[in-house]
Amino acid sequence: MTSEYLELNRALWDERAGAHAASPDYGFQRFADDPAHLSGVVRFDLPRLGDLTGLRGVHLQCHLGTDTLSLARLGADMTGLDFSGEALALARELAGRAGPPVRYVRSDVHDAVDALGAGGFDLVYTGIGALCWLPDIRRWAGVVAALLRPGGRLFLREGHPVLWSLADPRPDGLLVVEHPYVQRPEPTVWDEDGTYVTTDVSFTHTRSAEWNHGLGEVVTALLDAGFTLDALEEHDSVPWDALPGMMRLLDNGEWQLADRPWRLPHTYTLRATRR
């Protein structure tokens, strides 16, 4: 990623960290009040995660660390990595209040091997809304492979590239493919003054740069980086109101297209093992 886009995105995430932590959407107080509480994203994938007891794990692009802390509560020895110092300060505060301990390291994901060392992890975890900030999915796959020991595994749940490619909701209710499905050299640059959580904070850093990555590109990048694909599952729900005015809230806290949700995948879970 060029330094221009890196700094653009870092400024956006630094500014939004406090509003995200204060929002009920991240549920900081629930983590402090209930030592068994898990984030909705991790809870959704409990049947797929398997036994994490004693595994040394790293959560790349961990933001406020609610998923990281949840994985630690499931028994993993977790490290969280993110490029936002503001987000990590809040993540450390939450871990200090809620436990168990989590190590947090500030680094761009592309420099994760320099920051954490090579081959020392049993698990690399990446959650919703992470890959879209990366300009080169093959470079990312190489980083993940370098972090893992042989036999270590990657667990990824991400917004589906079909969902990312859709235009904003239209008055006529049509779903229209507007944005790139596959990775392009230049990013899609957004200028939006809001964020995805409930808040009345006004933001000054409104521009961001994102890249989409087709499902085939992600899988091929991992195969070429030395992984065996263990599972790939597409889901008809997403953890936030991705298409406002067009989605319904489900009992499990996820959102789903209200009209014929089977028309498109909303998210996917991928599991792979480093050969």
Automatic annotation (TrEMBL):
Keywords: Methyltransferase, Transferase
Domain Methyltransferase type residues, every copy: 59-154
InterPro entries assigned to the protein according to its UniProt record, in alphabetical order: Methyltransf_12, SAM-dependent_MTases_sf
GO molecular function: methyltransferase activity
Entry keyword annotation includes Transferase: yes
Transferase in keyword set: yes
BP GO terms, sorted: methylation
Name used for this protein in its record: Methyltransferase
Organism: Spirilliplanes yamanashiensis
